[in-house]
Amino acid sequence: MAFQVLVTEIANDDLAALVRFIARDNPSAAEHFGLALIEKLKLLREQPLLGRVVPERGDPILREIIHRPYRIVYRVNETKQTVEVLRFWHGARAGLELGG
After folding, report:
1. Is 66 helix (H, G, I), strand (E, B) or coil?
2. Which domains does the chain have, with CATH numbers?
3. φ, ψ for residue 43 (rounded to 5)?
4. How many CB atoms neighbour CB 64 within 10 A?
5. Hey, how many other C-beta atoms are within 10 angstroms of the C-beta on 67?
6. Which helix (H) or strand (E) holds 89?
7. Backbone dihedral angles phi then psi of residue 17, each to the nearest 5 degrees
8. Are 49 and 63 in contact (CB under 8 A)?
9. Largest Cα span, the chain
């Protein structure tokens, strides 16, 4: 059975902000990049453990997929069969913040 992929409000805001930022210089590239990130999320339906454990956290349910230069950070709940996308985080930013 496929997992349900949920995107938190903060992750949705991250995605919108990064697409707007790229669109200032290249709207077509912004659309392409945003859609590529969303395609990565679709992989998590069937392969929720696809990403690596977030190195600075070391918690096996907290994982990430790298889509340079961004990290897609998510939490897996195998009991509920959900993947909760927490952040789209630029790799150059220090101190991963997961919010509330």
Report:
1. strand
2. 4-90 (3.30.2310.20)
3. -60, -30
4. 21
5. 15
6. strand 82-90
7. -65, -40
8. yes
9. 43
Mean pLDDT of the chain: 93
CB of 83 closer than 8 Å to CB of 73: no
Helix (H) or strand (E) holding 77: strand 70-77
Percent of the chain with pLDDT over 70: 98
Q: Identity (one letter) of the amino acid at 47?
A: Q
Q: What is the pTM of this model?
A: 0.90
Distance CA 95, CA 71 (A): 12
Residue 99 scores a pLDDT above 70: no
The dihedral formed by the CA atoms of 49, 51, 5 and 77, expressed in degrees to the nearest 10:
40
Tell me the residue type at 79. Answer: T
